[in-house]
Amino acid sequence: MKQNSAGSTWEVEVNMVVLDKYLGIPKPFGPIINGGCCLEEKVRSLLEPLGLCCIFIDDYLSYHKLLGEIHCGTNVRRKPFPFKWWHVVP
């Protein structure tokens, strides 16, 4: 990185690719606790009970070092929602 600039220190899970119930998530390379990455375990514990399948992908050299993540290298065509999702009130 250039001087006076900012970038991510590690891969950020939110920069994933969603393909139906499958999530292509940047591998965070977090601390290993009980034989597994504690960051991956936390993400799995939050998303897999929702019926989602977490797939962690090592994109460190291919995208992260070049200041990108998995979503930067994808071009996913999606069917638009039949409603104006931005009007949905939780």
TrEMBL record:
Coiled coil: none annotated. This is Protein-arginine deiminase type-1-like. It comes from Physeter macrocephalus (Sperm whale). One of its GO terms (molecular function) is calcium ion binding. It holds the Pfam family PAD. GO terms for cellular component: cytoplasm; nucleus. It comes from the Eukaryota. Residues 13-87 form the Protein-arginine deiminase C-terminal domain.
